[in-house]
Specification:
CATH class of the largest domain: Alpha Beta
Strand content: 25-35%
Oligomer: single chain
Radius of gyration: 19 Å
Number of strands: 13
């Protein structure tokens, strides 16, 4: 039975975005405690909801970034309404909103063939590594010092982030590094910024993302320093691009175990970013 005639796809208001985060939690995606507010900063109109007779039954995000890049995530229909065409209606609206851009997503592996039918091509896998505990960070190298990200000139953070992400995302970055229940650190060298990492508290444990660094040594220092500053127990998760061997080595040497993976796919060519410096993806929902 199809519900598509009576389904309305609407843009979520800020007060409705927590609904999408709740659905993500129900799916076991373990969202961050502040994800609703910080995600909204990326694109306040980028979150869509399916309503059936005025009641929410599903969601999708279609976040538009400057410069012709978009990202799809949070694609969820409530279980009792699956197979009725509601997901297709959400998908069409999201793709329509991002028409004309290079669209990325992190999809579950089982959906790769479905996404391919909409023009998405596999770029690489992102692999989630998890550990219940991590070693202490040890002694800082003489030429590196750690500083809270909020204390670094914001223009420097924006420029550094842009090396690793296909578009400038100032509003999101500002919200992300200042969110409650999080630690945001930079590594500074003699010539400026050498690394950026954020650890945020989630429904269970913490996720580290982004983890950007000029070297594996700096990435390790940031990862272990962030983990040592978390304010509650529970696992630490890091989503690693498999195409960066140094990132895979970092996670494995830290004793982390593979627990999940996604397919990073794009409708156009993979964006030209510094993959060798991406040790942890910011989020599967926003790229």
């Amino acid at each position: 039975m199809s519900h598509t005639k009576s389904v309305a796809i609407v843009t979520m208001s800020p007060s409705q975005v927590p609904y999408a985060i709740q659905l993500a939690a129900a799916e076991g995606w373990n969202p961050g405690l502040q994800d609703a507010a910080t995600f909204l900063a990326a694109d306040p109109e980028g979150f869509l909801m399916a309503e059936l007779e005025g009641e929410p039954v599903g969601c999708i995000s279609a976040v538009s970034y400057p410069g012709g890049f978009g990202f799809i995530g949070l694609y969820i229909v409530e279980r009792e309404y699956r197979g009725c065409g509601i997901g297709r209606a959400l998908w069409r609206k999201a793709m329509q909103r991002l028409r004309g851009t290079n669209i990325g997503l992190d999809g579950v592996v089982a959906m790769q063939d479905t996404y391919a039918k909409s023009g998405f091509k596999l770029a690489y896998r992102n692999v989630r590594y998890t550990a219940s505990d991590l070693p202490s960070p040890g002694t800082l190298p003489d030429d590196i010092r750690l500083m809270p990200a909020a204390d670094v000139p914001f223009a420097d953070l924006v420029a550094y982030d842009r090396r690793f992400f296909p578009s400038e995302r100032q509003a999101f970055l500002r919200a992300w590094i200042r969110q409650p229940d999080a630690v945001a650190l930079t590594a500074l060298g003699r010539e400026g910024l050498r690394g950026l990492g954020v650890l945020r508290r989630c429904r269970e444990g913490h996720k580290v993302g982004p983890l950007f660094a000029d070297s594996g040594e700096i990435a390790k220092l940031l990862l272990l320093s962030l983990a040592s500053q978390r304010n509650s127990t529970g696992p630490v998760m890091l989503d690693v691009p498999e195409v960066n061997p140094a990132a895979v080595a970092l996670a494995e040497e830290a004793g982390m175990q593979v627990t999940f993976e996604t397919a990073r796919m794009y409708t156009g060519d993979p964006p030209l970013v510094d993959l060798g410096g991406i040790f942890g993806v910011t989020t599967f929902e926003l790229g």
